[in-house]
Amino acid sequence: MNHIEEPARSRRRFTERLASTLVFTAVMIWAAVVIIVKSDVDGVVALAVSFVLAGGLVAVYDAWREVRSVRREVDVEIHEEDLVRL
């Protein structure tokens, strides 16, 4: 693999990760809204539901943190590629 193919592959991986994170976020928000609107629970069950929803929010946050991390890596690779061309 040459030095031109690697940045393209990194950008494609970033785009795939971004798309899957967007879909995951949308599905989690939809599921949270459905659970909040449709559930009629109290007591221990309500506590359990709130923990599950909090876990979903943590998963969404972690997914976006990973996207930002990969984006920084892609930016560095692109910057290095521009320096190599100079």
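Second entry:
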Amino acid sequence: MAFDRRAQKKLYSEDELYEYAVGALARRMRTVAELKRLLRARVEADTEYGQTLVELIIRRLKDNGYLNDSQYAAYFSALRRDNQKFGRRRIATDLKVKGVHSDLIDKAVNAAFEGVSEEKQARDFLRRKRLAKPRDQKETARIFRQLARAGFSTKAIFSILKKWDVDDEILSHLEDEPDLSGT
């Protein structure tokens, strides 16, 4: 008879689950939603006891200052802005995927980009990716799509491309492309 790991799921006590959660937070910052996903995998989340236990652990972590989505969003936004040179939309999308509430996302992203020029940020992104002035329509479209995926507005992208003296005909073709940035 084969050994089935799923049949013998370890049941965690409150203290063991709390220690596991603290260890997970020690390895890296997490949102409430991410931590809940981790904890639910350790308990029988479909039972009332499991749900209550997860909520109790989350409450303890918040009360002790170990878990705070607004601090996470602010830190994440600044890190992605400075290190990856991403735009507002990309950072907001990434935070939404991580389960941060939209009000917290708006506050964190607005605070992170206060006084930051979107065009300068896009130029920094291009430098980081080692992208130079495009030579043809194909390269122009590739740069346009990369900047859109990185979270920059079409206004900032077109401003950069116009300063690179990209042909107006190519720019008019790009205006017809589906907007990946959300505008």
